[in-house]
Amino acid sequence: MAILQVENLKKIYTTRFGGNKVQALSNVTFSVEKGEYVAIMGESGSGKTTLLNILAALDRPTSGKVFLEGRELSAIKESEMATFRRENLGFVFQEFNLLDTFSIRDNILLPLVLNGAKASDLEAKLLPIAKKLGIDDLLSKFPYEVSGGQKQRTAVARALITDPKLILADEPTGALDSKSTDELLRVFRQINEMGQTILMVTHSTKAASHASRVLFIRDGEVFHQIYRGDCTNEQLYQKISDTLTLLTTGGEQR
Amino acid sequence: MKIGLFFRLAWSNLKKNHQLYIPHILAGTGLVGIFYIMMTLAKDERIKNIKGGYAIPDIMMIGIWVVVLLSVILVFFTNSFLMKQRTREYGMYNVLGMEKRHVGRIMFLESLISTVISIVLGILFGILVYKLCCLFICKILRVETILGFYVNWESLWKTAAGFGAMYLAAFLWNRIRLARLRPVELLSAQAGEKEPKTKWILLLIGLATLGTGYYLALTAESPVKAIKVFFIAVILVIVGTYALFLAGSIAFLKFLRRRKGFYYRRTNMIAVSDLLYRMKQNAVGLASIAILATGVLVMISTTVSLYSGAEDSLKHSFMDGKADLFVSATIHSYAEDEKKWHMELVPEDVLRENTERIIEKYGSKVTSFHAAWNVAESFCLEKDGSTHLFLPDRTLDMPPENAMVFLFMTAADYQGITGIDAQFGEGEIGWVPLSKNAASLTGRVDGTIRFGSKTYTVKEKLDYFPNSIEISIIDAYGIILPTVEDLENVGEQIMKETDWYKTPISYTYAVKIADPDIVSKNDPDGEIEDDFAFAINEYVIKTYGKDYSNTAGWNSIWKTRDEMYAIYGSLFFLGILLSIVFLFATALIIYYKQISEGYDDRHRFQILLKVGMTANETKATIRRQIVIVFLLPVITAVIHMTVAYPVILKLLGLLQLYNDKLFLLCTILTIAAFTALYMVIYRLTARTYYRIVR
C-alpha cells in the first residue's frame, strides 16, 4: 500500500505586487510505497522545494491532493496540523535547524516532549537511536561543540525519535563535507533498511544514487523516474547523471 | 565634494538604522534637557529669591551629579550596543575597499549628526519645559507664579560642552575599537554561544551581600542604627542584586533543568533553556533596571510622603492645633563668686507682653497665652543599676545607644494642656513614648526608676505628650511627675550630676493667634523673630545691666511650615526629575534588550515552527519568557522596597513624619504608577520586537 500519494498537485504563486502569477508546480503525480527510499532531483526553480513544503504541510496546494496513509492533508484542520506533523512526519534540513540553547540530548528529545511523552520514558527511546547514529557519547554537548556531520545526525535522530511514517529530507547533505556526506548517506541507508520510508529532495547525484528510486522534476512536473532495480550505487549514479545531462540539454520525455 | 559624499553616507546610515538611533537620540535629548533644567534651576536668581526657593540650588546640585553619573553610564551603554549591532556593517565597508580612516570618518559624521541633534533638541526641550518646571516649583512651594521666558546662557553652553565631550569620548572609544578590529572579525557571523556556567563564587557573594543587606535593614531597631546601616545596606543590596541576577538566575534555571520530571514538559523545556541564555545576556541590564526601579520607588514614595505629610507633622509638632507659636526665653548669667553659669528664666508676663505687642504689630492678636509645659530636659544613662541624668551636649550628634531622653513635666501642667487627667499617687510616674519605636519604658527599667534619692514606680503609659523634641534619634520619653516638688527634685539632681545650671527647668509657652496667616503675610522676610530676640535682649540689659547671653525661643507654625515646604518641596521636585531620568534609562535598556533579543529569537522561532510547533504555541512560549524577564526587575524592586520599608519609616521618623499609613499609601501608589508606566514602555518596545520576530 502506498504510504504517500500525490495526485495532480498544482501550485500557483501570486507575486505580492502586480499580481503576476508564477506556476511552481503544474501537475505532479506520484506515490511512495512503505519502506521506499525516494530521491527527488531537479534544478533550482524546478519546484522541488515547493513540493516538499506541500508534502510537509507547511504550504497548501492550489489544486490536487496529498494523502498520507490514506488521509488527505488538506482536510486536516489548521489547529491539528502541528500535532499531525509532529506525529507522522520527521524532518531533516540542510541547515540542521538545531536549537543552540539545547544540548544534543534535548534537541533530539524536543519532538517527544512536545508530544507530551513522560519524562521517565524519554531515555529508553533516546539511547537506541543515539547509539545507532553514533552520537551516544555526544548527548551532553551543545550544537556549537560538535561537527556538521554530528549535527546532521542529531537532526536525523530528532526526526526518527517519534517513529514517523515518513521522513522528509531537504538537501540533507548540502552543508556537509564529503566524509560527513558518506556517513549520513550510510545512516539513511541503514534506517531505510530497517523499514523507514524516506523522501529526500536533493541536488546531489551522489546522495540520490543511494536511493531506491529517483524522481526528476522539471518545470513543475515529474519529468522522469529511475528505479534502482539491481543497480549498484555506481551504476545508479551513472544513470542519474545521464538523465541530468538530458534534462539540462533539453531532451524530451522518454 | 568628498566630505559631501561621506556626509550623505553617514546620514543615510542613520536613516537606515533609525530603529537603533531614534531611541538613542531621544534618550540623549531627554538627558540633555533635564541636565539643562537642573543647571538652570541651580543658577536662576529668580528661583533662589522666591519664598522657600533658597533650598532649590543646593538640592539641584546634588541631583546634577546623579544625572551626570547616569548619563555617562547610559551614553556608553547605548554606544556599545550600537557599535555591536553595526560592526558587520562597518566591516562590509572595509571589505568593499574603504580604508579604516574612511570608515572612521563616516563613524565620526554619524556621531556628530546624532550628537548635534540630541544637544540641540535637548536644549530646546529644556528651555521649553523649564517654564513648566518653574510653574510646578511655585505650585509645590505654594508661592505666586514667576512669569517670563528665561534662558541661562551659562548653563546652556555648559550643557552643550559637557554632553559634547561625553559623546566625543564615546566616539573615540569606538574609533579605537575599529582600529583594532580585523576585517574578517568585522564580518564574521556570531558563532554558537557557549552555555552559561554557574558562577558559584558570585552566587555565594550575592547571597551573602543581599542577605546581610536585608538583615541589616530588617534588624535596625532604632533610628540611630537605621542611619548607620542604611547606606551600607543599600550598597550591599545593589551588589547582591547584580550578583544574583548574574549567577543566581543561572544556578536556579540549571537546577530546574536537572529535575527531569519538571524540565521535560512541553511548556517548561523551551522556556527554561531559553531563559538560561536570556539571563546570560541580560542579567546586567535587568539588574540595572531593578536597581533603577527601586530608586524610583524609594525616591517618589519618600518625597511624596514628606511633602504631603508636612501638614501632619506640623499638627504633631504644634499640639494638635492648640498652638500657633511657642515662645520661651532663658538667660545665662555667670556668677563670678561661684565660678558657675546660672540659667535664669525670663518672667512669664514679660514674655506675654512682648509677644502680644509684636503680634499686634504684624496685624493680628494673641487669643491665648499659657504655659505649655515646664520641662526639665535631660539625657539619661543606665549605669550601675541606677539612672544617671545629665545635660545633653548640644553638639552631640551621636549619643550612646543605651541613652534615653527624658522630658519631665508635672501632672498639673499636663492636665492643663491636654485635658487628660493624669493624677498619680506619691512616687508614681506616667510615661509617653516620644520616638516612634521607643521600647516600653517599664520593660527597660524593670518597673522602677531612680532619679537621685527618689525612686519612682513606672505606672501608666499615656498616649499624648505636648512635646516638640528635636533629638529623636534615640528613644525619648515624656515623663509626667506627680508634683512640682518632684520636678524640682529632678532639677536638683540634674544640677548635681552636671554641675552647670542654676535651674535646668525651662518654661515654654503656647500662643494661639487669631489669624496666623496675616502675620505670616505681613512678615515676608522673617523679621518677627528678630523683633522678639531684640525685645528679650533689651529686657536682659535693663534688668541685669549687663549683656548676658540669652536664648529667645520663637517657633512659629508658619515659619516651620515654610521651611518644610521649601525643603520637602525641593526634594519632591528633585525626586520627580531623577525618576524621569531613571525611567529614561529603564526604557532605553528595555528597548535595546528587545531589539537584540528579537534578532536572536527570530531564528529560534523559525526552527520551532519547522520542528512542529504551531505559530501560536511558539508565540505563547516566547511571550511567556519575555513577560517573566520583564516582571523580574519590577518584582525585585518591590521586594527591595518591602524590606526597606521599615528602615525608611524610621528614617522618616527623624524628619518628624510619623504617619505610616500615608507612607504605605504613597508606596503602594508609587508601585502601581511605576508598574503601569513600565508596562507602557514594555508594550511600546514589544511592538518593535514582534515586528522583528515576524
Describe the structure.
The complex is a heterodimer of chains A (about 250) and B (about 700). With about 250 residues, chain A is an alpha/beta fold. In chain A, about 35% of the residues lie in helices and about 25% in strands. Chain A has eight helices and ten strands. Chain A has helices spanning about 50-55, 80-90, 105-115, 120-130, 150-160, 180-195, 205-210, 235-250, and strands at about 1-15, 20-35, 35-40, 65-70, 70, 90-95, 165-170, 200, 215-220, 220-225. Chain A has a six-stranded mixed β-sheet with strand order 6-7-8-3-9-10, with helices on both faces. In chain A, strands 2-1-4-5 form a four-stranded antiparallel β-sheet, covered by helices on one side. In chain A, helix 6 (about 180-195) links the parallel strand 7 (about 165-170) and strand 8. In chain A, helix 3 runs parallel beside helix 5 and helix 5 (about 150-160) packs parallel to helix 6 (about 180-195). The longest helix of chain A is centred in the C-terminal third of the chain and has 17 residues, at about 235-250. The two termini of chain A are about 25 Å apart. The model of chain A has no long low-confidence stretch (mean pLDDT about 85). By secondary structure, chain B is of the alpha+beta class. Among the domains of chain B are: about 1-190, no CATH class; about 320-555, no CATH class. Chain B is built from 21 helices and eleven strands. In chain B, strands 1, 2, 3, 4, 5, 6, 7, 8, 9, 10 and 11 form an eleven-stranded mixed β-sheet that branches. In chain B, helix 4 runs parallel beside helix 6 (about 155-180), helix 5 (about 100-140) packs antiparallel against helix 19 (about 555-610) and helix 13 packs antiparallel against helix 18 (about 530-545). Chain B is elongated and about 100 Å long. Chains A and B meet through helix 2, strand 6, helix 3 and helix 4 of A and helix 10, helix 11 and helix 19 of B.
Mean pLDDT metric of chain A:
85
Q: What radius of gyration of chain B results from the CA coordinates?
A: 33 Å
Q: What shape does the CA trace of chain A take?
A: globular
- Mean pLDDT rating of chain B: 81
Largest interface, with Cβ-Cβ < 8 Å?
A: A-B, 33 and 25 residues
Give the number of DSSP strands of chain B: 11
Major beta-sheet overview of chain A? 6 strands, mixed
Shape of chain B: elongated
SSE string of chain A: EEEHEEHEHHHEHEHEEH
Q: What separation lies between the terminal Cα atoms of chain B?
A: 41 Å
Low-confidence stretches of chain B: 391-397
Fraction of residues in helix of chain A: 25-40%
